[in-house]
Amino acid sequence: MPIATRRRVAVLISGRGSNLRALLEAKQDDYEIALVISNRPGAGGIEIARAAGVETLTIDHKSYGKNREAFERAMDAALRERNIEIVALAGFMRVLTPYFVRAWEGKLINIHPSLLPKYPGVDTHARALAAGDVMHGCTVHLVVEEVDAGEFLGQARLAILPGDTPETLAARVLELEHSLYPPCLVRLAFSLR
Asked: Can you tell me the distance from the alpha carbon of 167 to that of 153, in angstroms, rounded to the nearest whole number?
């Protein structure tokens, strides 16, 4: 049963927006994507959001130089002005500072392309192949100060196939991400009632 008030969600992106598209196309009884923020001008996901009628902002991190917290304070102000309740990272390629993580504690969610706790950080597919893993996948988790270390909200796995490359594995894991992320966002929205 849907909750009486859908939670207002902002999605932070840096690129093409495929996970954003999955969140937008999912049944949104428990959440509403109310804002999309990109840290990169021209990110493909901005057009996906606009086509769906979602407000978009570009806050270019480069204009803040090395002052990561100033960039995040600008994002935080935009989120609060729009009464955002949950922040979902979807291909947002910035490590967040303790300031932002603490400000959104328990309401900040990410999807990561590995079966955490294995392979936090980058190059997850190549690392899984190099280790000789037979299974790989993705994890949705709450964001904490330590990178990719928050409480798991869900995982999906698949078999690594003979002949897989980092690129073929990435493509198959991305499909898993698209099916895993929406129900995990629903779970978080429901838990915040």
From this structure: 26
Q: How confident is the model at residue 2 (pLDDT cuts 50, 70, 90)?
A: very low
pLDDT in tens, 83-100: 999 999 999 999 999 999
Question: Which is the catalytic residue, given 61, 112, 136, 178?
Answer: 112
Verify whether residue 61 is a known catalytic residue.
no
CATH of domain 7-191: 3.40.50.170
Does residue 34 contact residue 62 with C-beta atoms inside 8 Å?
A: no
- The domain segmentation of the chain, as residue ranges, is 7-191
pTM of the model: 0.94
Measure the N-to-C terminal CA separation of the chain; round to a whole number of Å.
Answer: 13
